[in-house]
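Quick start: read one record
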Amino acid sequence: MTDITRRDAIKIGAAAALTAGAAGLVGGADAQAQTAFALKPEAGASLKVLRWKRFVQGDEDVWLANSKKYAETTGVQVRVDSENWEDVRPKAAVAANVGSGPDIIITTNDDAQKFPGKLLDVSDLADYLGGKYSGWYPVCDRYSKRDGKWIGIPMGCAGNALVYRKSHIQKAGFEEIPKDLPGFLKLCQGLKKNGTPAGFALGHATGDANCWTHWCLWAHGAKLVDENNHVTLDSPETVAALEYAKQLYPTFIDGTLSWLDPSNNKAFLAGECSLTSNGISIYYAAKTSTDPAQKAMAEDIYHSNFPIGKPGIPTEQNLFFNMVIFKYSKYPNAAKDYLRFMMEQEQYLPWQTASIGYVAHPLAAYASNPFWTEDPKATPYRDAVKVMRDTGYAGALGAESAQCMADFLIVDMFAKACTGAVSPAEAAKQAHEQAKRIYKA
């Protein structure tokens, strides 16, 4: 359990000034029609919440302060526990199977689609929030609905963008990140030549490895399954993606094959690599550091969206966060009301601002948060939920797509091809057969 200090609680007061300036976010006919959520917490209710361990301190500080504020306002006691991303998934599966555990778990990607029958229908809450805040972005329907019902409330996503040292790419002959695939490869080769290499995770990193490998797959027009859930990995497009990644791999710093989510943060901040894919947490760590060298590095850190490939549109995959309530909860009303409270602009905007946009919003109205333009370095993360594809693209999300993610099927396919363990064609074929067994095709 994580305790909330008085200092943490005060932070939300300082950040709350943002809400007054952003009052215009709520408006229109839908907002007028839904100004209140009628469900009230049960008498004597208490809640247990399981979420991931913070990568950005402001995220945890204000989330806990908001939780304390809810407890003080309603009398509902809230306990928040934090685990690593890799540990939240199995704990959610155990809770679903045994019928006991936290009332609310903040899951990743399509984990909720593994056990939709064990989750509370939260359609009333989703409709309220969507009506009040200009609607949910389309990908939210894919992740958080099943059979027409909402089985989760989207928190947003950890946007994944390219993080780079501007002075280093300038030395490599570029003023900005190229917007095309050949140019991006040329940049990475130039960085390697200058001794300032790139680094992209190829280990079982839930966020970083999945994000860049899915981007690369989709940027070449390939996909795991088609619209009818037929496995399509054994294709010329997949081979092209793997051959491109195999050319990128020699430009990487050594050791990326075993990188987990914290690894590239550490390598970048240590000056060992100059380009990676990550959330805004690297910039946050440098910007808020007491080390003068780290603060100086923050001035040189910039962000960019990924290059555009064959489809001609963004093909980004970001780590989606779904807040689910289990049917076994003794206090379903309180659980819904807690999530409502956390998603209202009075709490959500100060939380998002304190974590400098580490979680991009799922509700369209929050794109107007002044934070996104006050620091232009945050802007590439603003539309992460709006433009992202879901992990089961282009088929339906479900237990099969979730299993492919849990098995790191796409990541391992790329790792095999990049390292030369097998040829790109053979890596695609092996992954195709593995996916067929999961999809029972």
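Residues 6-159+318-387 form a domain with the D-Maltodextrin-Binding Protein; domain 2 fold (CATH 3.40.190.10).
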